Amino acid sequence: MGYDAPCTLRVGREATRGRAVLEQHDLIFRGPTRLSIPLNTIASAVAQDGSLTIRFGRTTAVFEIGKAAARWAERITNPPSRLDKIGAKPAMSALIAGEKHADLVDELTDRGVRLVKSAGDGGVDMIFYGASRRDGLERISELKDLLKPNGALWVIRPKGKTTITEADVMAAGKSAGLVDVKVVSFSESHTAEKFVIPRKDR
Known about the structure:
It is a single chain. The chain is α+β, with helices and mostly antiparallel strands. The protein folds into 2 domains: 4-79, Roll (PH-domain like), CATH 2.30.29; 83-201, Vaccinia Virus protein VP39 (Rossmann fold). It has helices at residues 69-77, 82-86, 102-111, 140-144, 166-175; strands spanning 4-11, 14-22, 26-30, 35-38, 42-48, 51-56, 59-64, 93-98, 114-116, 124-130, 147-158, 179-185, 190-196. It has a 7-stranded antiparallel sheet with strand order 4-3-2-1-7-6-5, covered by helices on one side. The longest helix is centred in the middle third of the chain and has 10 residues, at 102-111. It is elongated.
């Protein structure tokens, strides 16, 4: 379910018809009046009778979006963690390859994910591969063979770098016989693309 809806925005006595979009870091209104509210500046988000009331700074904005208002308020006040977006669950097995991200290792351990140094005969549920240069993407074919049939390979790369781009990662995954299914913001400096084995090949 997406977070994109037609709505009426009310700020003070002014009402404007347009479209609201809840993105990862911002709540945006597009219409004759444009408004972008960073989520980290929102003091409260309350849903009532189809209206989403947002308080940020000294301003109160009311987004009339209908029955989805409660879901939006929940998403704003309790955003999914990085591991929620990645889909990491207790008892899963994970292998870390390439460039390491110590904070990810700590988070996985705290959640109860089992970190392994080798895949073994059965493969692993998840592989996290850190790459900062396109020539490192040659390992994707090798890593694919370490996955369980329904496992996921996450390629973590720096944002906004010419040494490795989204196109590079997508092309490497496709060349390895994988399909890309999701992209998440891994951190302020890195992004992560998720690849899985096509259903016909599992």
